[in-house]
Amino acid sequence: MPDRVSMIRTRLEQTLTPVRLDINDDSHLHRGHAGAATGGGHFSVLVVSDKFTGLSMVQRHRLVYQALSDLMPAEIHALSIRALTSGEN
Fold first, then answer.
1. Which range of residues forms the domain containing residue 67?
2. Contact 21, 77 (CB under 8 A)
3. What is the per-residue pLDDT across 49-88, written as a single tens digit (0 to 9) for each?
4. Does residue 89 sit within a domain?
5. In the chain, where do the E strands start and end?
6. How far is it, in rounded angstroms, from Cα 60 to Cα 7?
7. Domain contains 58
8. How far apart are CA 37 and CA 41, in angstroms?
9. Residues 1-12: pLDDT tens digits?
């Protein structure tokens, strides 16, 4: 089975065609956290995609969550998102 970062990367690349995609697994910072006990990881992503053009931050986050919906909450417990267009990068 692919690791969680690879699964996140694949889904975001397929859905948002990013010009930049940084994914950090921050799970080690949350050991002992109640949510971490369920097995889901903590991740932060920076997604730069022109598909965000004209969208509010809420709409951008929704696109990211939709792309990753099948991974939540089993694989992803918490997700921090920075969603930018290439002009904002």
1. 4-84
2. no
3. 999 999 999 999 999 999 999 998 788 888 999 999 999 9
4. no
5. 20-25, 41-48, 76-84
6. 19
7. yes
8. 9
9. 469 999 999 999
Q: Which residues fall within 8 angstroms of residue 44, CB to CB, at 6 or more apart? A: 23, 24, 26, 79, 80, 81, 82
Q: What residue has token string 């002992």?
A: 32
Count of the separate structural domains present in the chain: 1
Give the burial class of 55: count Cβ atoms within 10 A of its Cβ; 0-12 exposed, 13-18 middle, 19 or more buried: middle
Reference 3, options 65, 68, 72, 75; nearest CA is 75
- Length of the chain measured in residues: 89
Residue 24's domain is classified under what CATH number? Answer: 3.30.300.90
Bridge partners for 47 per DSSP: 21, 83
Instruction: Report the distance separating Cα 58 and Cα 83, nearest Å.
Output: 10
